[in-house]
Amino acid sequence: MKLCRYDDDRLGVVRGDLVHDVTLAQTEIRNSLPYAMKGDAVVAALPQWREQIERLADKAPRKRVAQVKLLAPVARPTKLSCAPTNYQAHIAEMKAAAAQPSSQVVTVQSAKIGEAGMFLKANSSLVGPSEGIAVRFPDRRSDHEVELVMVIGKTGSDIPRALALDYVACYCLGLDMTVRGREDRSFRKSVDGYAVAGPWMVTADEIANPDALPLMLEVNGERRQDSNTNMLIYDCRRLIEFASSFYTLYPGDLIYTGTPEGVGPIKPGDSLVCRSSPPLGELKIAVRAHETSGAPEPHAVAQA
Question: Which terminus of the chain is less hemmed in, N or C, by CB atoms within 10 Å?
Fold first, then answer.
């Protein structure tokens, strides 16, 4: 099953090029659980509500995907946990980039993920395809990093590797956008709009092996990144084990698994396309300049 959030926080089941409105289920789920719960209520309730949501979708009003504004598929994660330096070829390219004169790329103290640890992005940086990416510092490099994202389905701490995938509810595509510089990594990566997820989330039963998924990214039709999660240094199971050894994972938490080689700068006016076809679909998102007026950022709609 493919689930999306769209327009004004509506919940939809995606079938082909149609979105079936199952917001009624979302409303009932949220009303039945305490507001103070940790995590996302809809993700937490999926095992119990799956069949009912499917039945509701059969008779629900529908729209074409191209007619809706896709939001990030999870409304209330407690955290975005991200893996640095998790592809060997990416480590090599960043080391080479940092050695260039006047480079804005700064290498971390350790390129080994087990030593560097995971890092966190602010929840406020999370956006979906319709919201766009606003480049805040035009004089600095903002780089694209396509990634597989795991959506945690149930609460867990100190999760053993053998059971790790039992804690995954869904998968989706993600972009870990990055401002290059010398500030703390979590600070530079938490710019508004610099954590993209979507276009929807695909339930784990539809993904036979998350460690064998193609990942591709294009900028204005030019292919920049093209790899596979079978190249991960810490695979999906190990990432869950590693992250949960430091903090509790809650329903709806997002784990960004790291980016392969081919990262590069973006600028306002660019159009990005991320793909992992067929299982996760295609994520399209537009890039614009950040507005400093103090007014809310306008949403740059991009079709999925």
Answer: N
In angstroms, the CA 84 to CA 86 distance is 6
Report yes or no on whether pTM surpasses 0.85.
yes
Helices (H), strands (E): how many in the chain? 6, 19
Are 153 and 164 within 8 A, CB to CB?
no
On whether the CB atoms of residues 297 and 193 are closer than 8 A, the answer is yes
Predicted confidence at residue 302, as pLDDT, reads 46
Pick the CATH number of 80-289 from 3.90.850.10, 3.40.50.300, 3.30.200.20, 3.20.20.30: 3.90.850.10
Distance set, CA 221 to CA 199, 232, 255, 272, 273 (Å): 18, 26, 28, 8, 8
Do residues 235 and 126 touch, judged by C-beta distance below 8 A? no
CA atoms of 291 and 28, how far apart (whole Å): 37
Percent of the chain with pLDDT over 90: 84
Apex 137 CA angle, 217 and 122, nearest 5: 70
Q: What is the mean pLDDT of the chain?
A: 93
Q: Which pair of tokens denotes residue 263?
A: 């990262």
Q: Where are the beta strands (DSSP E) in 136-269?
A: 142-144, 146-152, 168-176, 178-179, 195-203, 214-219, 222-228, 254-256, 264-265
Under the banding of pLDDT at 50, 70 and 90, the label for residue 296 is low
Burial class (CB in 10 A: 0-12, 13-18, 19+), 239: buried
Domain boundaries, the chain: 2-67, 80-289
Residue 303's pLDDT band, with cuts at 50, 70 and 90, is: very low
User: Closest Cα partner for 227 from 258, 186, 196, 269?
Assistant: 258
| CA distances in angstroms from 297 to 179, 192, 293, listed in the order given | 19, 10, 9
